[in-house]
Amino acid sequence: MIGAELSRVAPETVRAFAPAERLPDGAVWISWERHRRTRELSRSLHAELVELTSRSRWLVRYPILLWQTVWRLARRRPSVLLVQCPSVLLGVWVSLLKHAFGYRLVADLHNEAVVPFNYSGRLYLAALRFIHRTADVSVVSNDALKRVVEQHGGRAFALPDRIPGLAVRPHALENAARPAVVFVCTYAPDEPFLEVIDAARLIGPSIDLYVTGNPRRMKRAVAVPSHVHLTGFLSESAYEQLLARADVIVDLTMMDDCLVCGAYEAVALAKPLVTSDTPALRQYFRNGTIYSAHDPVLHAAAITRALGMRRQLAGEMAALRRDLRAEWTTRRDALCALLKQEVH
Description:
This protein is an alpha/beta fold. 43% of the residues lie in helices and 15% in strands.
């Protein structure tokens, strides 16, 4: 999601944390990409974040990243090492290095590192199971993913994303007379973007639909109605401004156990949400939300309903934001306590 793949963190999103529990001094988090969940968690856990990235082709990029990872480990000698996975190669690499450097390994597993949607090769699946068994603790976003890791012989802890702090002051949209619906999209295989565009066609020009992400990732040409606006890549600031101006936020996935980034952002801004009708999303985003199966007619009905109920849903979202932040803090502290036991 564009909201998650950050090139920087705006100053207003940085908050001071004072958890009842915190990781031991010297904890380090290594990531091979920039991601909102990683930045929020590492800051909240007081772990030093090391983001290693390269724009080189993969034949050059991966040797560079593998070597840089070893170099950082040799310099810092962490007692606890946390990694974002994917990258699965990073997860395998630090699992192999674990005993050489003597750290406790915590793997923050995103969906593709637990129940992959895009990859099904035997080698990839074997690598996942190796990471699950080798990590001292695997952190996942929900209990369904936790059970999968445990079935593979690993130890898992469920911690959703932290509700981000998005302190933005929205400006009026160009077509402010019509309701604005923002579809958080990256044109990934699990996102039913064609169905959403068709839903907007069914609703007609009474709304404006803004679709984030790079439309060049669509594999075929699509006829786009005039009231559907493909935003292209947006900076973090522009993306957050667009969300803040939305009357309804839409974020959908065909992955059963995925908690989508745009849903967290809808909670942060107390915006009505339309999302996929899955048990994981229903359980966590339990208020302020309309759920939809992946069909243009059903998406159109869900968006129309959310617009008609937007004041009520926004109020529910504000209450849900308070509850989820309190619940998250409790779980974060429990994770810190668990990791301190692992070290000592």
